[in-house]
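Protein: Nascent polypeptide-associated complex protein
Species: Methanolacinia petrolearia
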Amino acid sequence: MIPGVNPKQMKQMMKKLGMKMDTIEDVERVVVYTKSGNYVFDNAEVVATVMQGMTTYQINGEPRFEEAEAVIPEDDVKLVAEQAGVSEDEAKAALTEAKGDIAEAILKLSE
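Structure follows.
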């Protein structure tokens, strides 16, 4: 809150402005999904603020980042297996380790 302002006065001011704040109880986990990975907030505090008909959510907590796994197309697996002369399972494992980079996977398998 704002220093020096009575919480009761703050609620009255917010009501005059048409604002409403609610803490969402019993939040176990919040996950923000991105292409590069996910931000996971365990036991986060979530506050929903409604102002002029629009709801905004604030997440308070310490996130941990979980890197996204590369999606490996089947055509890439077949190409790497053919070029490196290995099974598709080995090719897929190499592609996963190389995060989908075909050239790197072939080089690793050719060593």
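Remarks: The chain has two domains: 7-67, 74-110.
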